[in-house]
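Quick one: co-fold with FE2/S2 (inorganic) cluster.
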Amino acid sequence: MNLDAIAAIATEYPERQSAILPALRLAQEEHGGWLPPEAIREVADALDLAPAQVEAVASFYDMLHLAPVGKHMVEVCTNLSCALVGAQQVLQAFEEQLGVAPGETSEDGRFTLRAIECAGGCGRAVVVVVDERYREPVRPEDVPGIVEELKRGD
Amino acid sequence: MSATELVTVTVDGREVHVPPGTGLVETALAAGVEIPVFCYEPRLGAAVGACRMCLCEIEGMPKLQAACTLTATNGMIVRTAQTSERAAEGQEATLEFILVNHPLDCPVCDKGGECPLQDLTFRWGPGNTRMTFPKRTFEKPIPISPAIALDRERCILCYRCTRFSESVAEDGQLVALNRGAESVIATFEDEPYLAPFSGNVIELCPVGALTSTQYRFEARPWEIQNVPTVCGLCPVGCNIQATTREGKVKRILSRNHPEVDEGWLCDKGRFAFTHLRARDRIADPLRRVRRRGFDVLSWDDALGEAAELLMQAQGRIVTALSGSETVEQAYALGRLMRAGLGAHTGVLPEETSPALDAFRLPLSAIRDAELEPVAERAPIVELWVKAARRQGAQVEQAGDALEGCRRLADKRNALGKSLRESERAILIWSGEEGAGGAHLAALAKELGFAGKPASGAFHLPCTPNGRGIADAWAAASDDEGPNPEPIGLLFVSGDEAAADPNVRALAERAERVIVNAMFQGLAVGWADLVLPGTSYLERDGTYVNLEGRLQRLRRAVIPPAPDELAWISKLAERFAVEVSPHASAVFAEVSERIYDGLPFGEVGEEAPLRTRSEAPAPQLPSEPAAEGKGLRLVRYRPLFSGPAVERVPELQFQRPAPEVELSPGDAGRRGIAPGETVTVTHNGTSLQLRARITKSLREGIVRIAAEHAGELGGTVEVAK
Ligand code: SF4
Ligand code: SF4
Ligand code: FES
Ligand code: FES
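Sure, here it is.
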């Protein structure tokens, strides 16, 4: 892993602890979208911290993953504004199309589906985040198209 | 506002005057009102307000406030649950919330009977539960380490344990994972919590979530007794309570002495007590017999035999001391050997020097210092140094003792210059080349510490009572005598002496050997006569710790054999020397000679530190240390070593690995990576050890635990 990059990040903060989050983001990118224990240990070593301190941060934040994720990450906001205009139905449509429940990864390892809290796009609800890019607004009938598009792109 | 000005706060209608900035919990206490708390613990740093148990109404603030996070300001009006309906409701709701998922398995919980959650629920909580659904369950108990078990169901997430790990011990190994309702206390990947102070989290936990594996299901609070005494396993002398039940020590708890230990213990002091019940503990006197090995003797026969051996030696006796004897024991032994038999030769476990008494300070002064050159580490001292660093003190590594002293004494040295200028500077040294603190005293004098009451110096000895026994042995007689040659009899006092290779070497040259030891493994095979030894938990008397503080040791449990004072007194009788079998009487005699007649009863539960006293300061030896090629080897005695630790299964995982510690620079130049096997050579002997890179180590120095250093010494070379 890119330990020098982490060390460089660390110099931008007054305390090493503050560099944990950006360092973990970097580590997650390099480890295929999730943080195996080795990644956490590497970050801890690079920042001269105990691995438990790094794991505490990694397990706190929702966008850091401690288990393997699929090639594509589909996240449906189910918080208030989105819920009011049918987030549940959108989520359900994804469940049917992908054959997985929220929080799960499809058996072929291609898709992970998650229900998330407010994505900050309430004005154009329902918000669906696909591989870190926002689709908004999404209706249940748009879902097959999105899934088709992702499958085709592979 | 000047610091001496006080602010007025009204708590439940009572006015109190406290210094501004006093915590509200303490302010209320000053008014005689208790605010209940779980997470609040000032020793852990700033309050976190995690549990909300301390809710109070404060005039002018619309919502209930967590009192532990507030400090006293002038005119503040506080109403606690005693007088405020809202606060009482808030507290009850907090408890109801905490209990939603708490198992309430008090009947099988070790904390039951001494549990703050039980007590506060009884006093402030709802009498009933509205929750009808099943409670959360976890796998349990989870071994946090071989010594600590975790019951996650009982955890109330007060974060005391994780705050200790993060900001007192600074090991960062115990953390809270996840967030909100999912939060759990854990170590990384379930690895054991491997740190020298881990056991303190058991005592900090306000519920039965973190428990001691040694104490699990062993006793109930109403069947135990807590005996106030001091730890006898290292020279810090932490104040402890020994919990006993039916004549057995069941656990060791801290007993906060704010100047010595601040209520923290190291894991050796906390967990090593089971050595009292070691399998090879000696309960009866033993005599060597040809071919059969050993015979058990009656005490009468044993004392007869001992007297016979002492007589036959005709004064050609050498006494090897351990440094773990009480002051009284060393004095009594001195009376017997020196006054009774004219045998003045004592082999002390280490050098000690009275010169440092002129620079005496309580350990707590370390926290408040601004500049601290440090050579080496010792258990609780390490926590004080960490506290100082957190408060902004400048802590410097000073290399090894003698060389460091020389460097700082030099007027041109920059650090030495700052030390001369500082009003609050403390030197912390250890190591055999320090001449028992004499060199350090010379340095402190040179730096002008004599006139600065907040500057001082500590030399960390290796043995728990090295200073005490040296003074007591010296006080036992005014006569002197030549060292006997050949040695007629070697008397070995205590297990540490029995384990010491130098003492073993002396035994080779002695015609006869008497060993006084607790463990068969250390006595059998080389002693003609073995007299059973006792532990610090089984003796009455006094110890002198590394500050020079005289502290009281109390017998927590009766030893399996008479203690040393009892039989030394009997033996002395045969040689017409009067020695009392009672510690109090022996102390009175010693005290007349060396402690200004201080009465035994006044040594006290929270012993004060004697004032500084002048002693002629020695000179620093001027010729520079032999600068050999290669790296200077520092052999150190690790915290987790010694006869007691070796006999405690829960501490085996803490014992030092066969490693050599190198500074990053030295390792880099030799192309050595962490974890690699390297060869350490000195004068043709060599050893294979694993390399460990220690950032805080000065270049040119390597460290190896004595038990893994074999014959190595002086300067060594390290290669892949
Ligand atoms: S922690 Fe306290 S309240 Fe909880 S089960 Fe144990 S004794 Fe009972
Ligand atoms: S284990 Fe004990 S000390 Fe640690 S957070 Fe839970 S209740 Fe608090
Ligand atoms: S609630 Fe869905 S984006 Fe805000
Ligand atoms: S004691 Fe005040 S919030 Fe815990």
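If it helps, Chain B touches chain A at residues 166, 171-179, 186-189, 695 (CB under 8 Å).
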